[in-house]
Design goal:
Helix content is 53%, strand content 0%. It is globular and about 35 Å long. It has a single domain, classed as Arc Repressor Mutant, subunit A (Orthogonal Bundle), CATH 1.10.10. α2 packs across α5. It is built from five helices and no strands. The longest helix is centred in the middle third of the chain and has 17 residues. The protein is mainly alpha-helical and 96 residues long.
Length: 96
């Protein structure tokens, strides 16, 4: 599958995102997206659509009513980085 990504693996054009693209990006990074992962990926996409900004990890965890530690268990390479990359969102800024 040909996916147009930047040097760090984030989609260049958010409109190119699909669940299949997300699965391929995750596969390239060496992990599988479970239903639990999808719950957070889709929620982050919804929040981005509402606010046009990627939320910081603490705000995201609070919005999802989970402990941030749980998100680090699911997304060990950095929750917001991984969620945004697979979710077709811009690279998060600040502490992630």
């Amino acid at each position: 599958m040909n996916i147009n990504v930047d040097g760090e693996g984030y989609l260049v054009d958010r409109a190119d995102w699909s669940p299949e693209v997300a699965t391929e990006i995750a596969k390239r990074d060496g992990y599988y997206i479970s239903d639990e992962h999808w719950k957070f990926i889709n929620a982050a996409r919804d929040l981005y659509d509402e606010n046009a900004v990627v939320p910081p990890i603490r705000k995201f965890a609070k919005a999802m009513e989970v402990d941030a530690k749980y998100l680090y268990e699911l997304f060990p390479k950095g929750p917001m980085k991984m969620i945004c990359k697979v979710g077709g969102l811009p690279k998060p800024t600040g502490c992630v």
